[in-house]
Structure formats: structure tokens, C-alpha cells
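Possible regression after last week's pipeline update?

I re-ran a chain I had predicted before the update to compare outputs. Posting the input and the new output here so someone can diff against the archived version. Not blocking, just want to make sure nothing changed silently.
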Amino acid sequence: NNSSDLEAITRISKEIKNAEICVLSDCEISNIKKAINFLQNVKKSRLNIYSNANASPDGTDKTLYKLQKSISFAANKVAKIQWTAFDGNRAGFDLLKKQIEATIIWGVDVICLPDSMGVSSTADFQQLIKKVQSGVRGIDNVELSVHCHNNSGLAYANSRMASMLGVDQVEATMLAIRAEKGNCNTVQFAEYLN
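New output (post-update):
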């Protein structure tokens, strides 16, 4: 959220012609405004809005209201909107389903299921993806993404399994660098795709 970020995004968008440029933001409108400003000259722009999908049940309506406001604000200002269901794999499925279905109705283009803390076994993460694919209304109308952290050493295995289940996008990082114990390694995942 500073001028060096804006400069970097601008330079990247001028060099990279056939890829989307994505900026991550929480649900605060002030931060979404900054993110949209970063993307204003990008042809293939994506805003990735995240919120805590594992909020306490009494805070769900407040979280959904804030999320709806942020999605509505961003609509028509970027090419694509993604919602990342932070810690969604540890939320109860009914709660996660309610949030996914709501964001689809509000117009998101991509739903991301992250293993935010890197705690899901491959079997558990597989079960979650299958439940979302078969049990969420409207899921066929959006892209499905995964974002796996490596705390348990399963980021690559879980990402590969998600790919085999037909998810549209696997989020990975160069050299697996990221928060927690890192993410799925882009090079390793690319080798699997080859």
C-alpha cells in the first residue's frame, strides 16, 4: 500500500502482457480503493478480497455484510474479483457453504479455498473440495482455486490432489516462499504439470 508497490505493479503490468495482475486486500473499503488504484491501468486485473471464513457463528452476519459491501464496491472496477475464504478449511461446512454461495450471488468470479494454517491432511482437503464441488449452488459458474501452506509439509501434495480434482487454479510461489512455512513451490508444481 505504498508508492513503491504501485511502481512495481505498473512496471510488471507493462512487461507482462498475457497474464493477470492480482492485488490482495482485506474487506476494508479504504484498502480496496488502494488496491483498485494499483490496478487502474492493468488490462487483466484481479482483486483478491479475503475475509475470515472461520469467524464465530455470532459474527457471521457482520462478516457477510462487510464482504458484500466490499464486493459491491469493487464490482465493475476490475476485470475479476476473487474471494479467498481465509481459514475456510477449518470452518464448519454449512458456514463455509453459506459464505461461498453468497459471494457467488454477489458476483465474484473466483473462489479460493486455502489451507491457511497448513493443517489439512490430503484426505481432509480432498473431502472439502469434493463437498464444495458437489454441494455448493452456483460453484460451476465460477473458477475454483486452492492456496496451500506448508506447515505440515503437504502444500505440494494438497495442490496436486486439487489439480487432479479439476480445480481451475493452484496458487503457488517461487521457491515456496510465503507466510507460515511457505506455499506450494511453483517449480515443483510446474514439473508435475509437465
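Follow-up from reviewer: compared with the archived run. The chain has a mean pLDDT of 90. Marking as no regression found.
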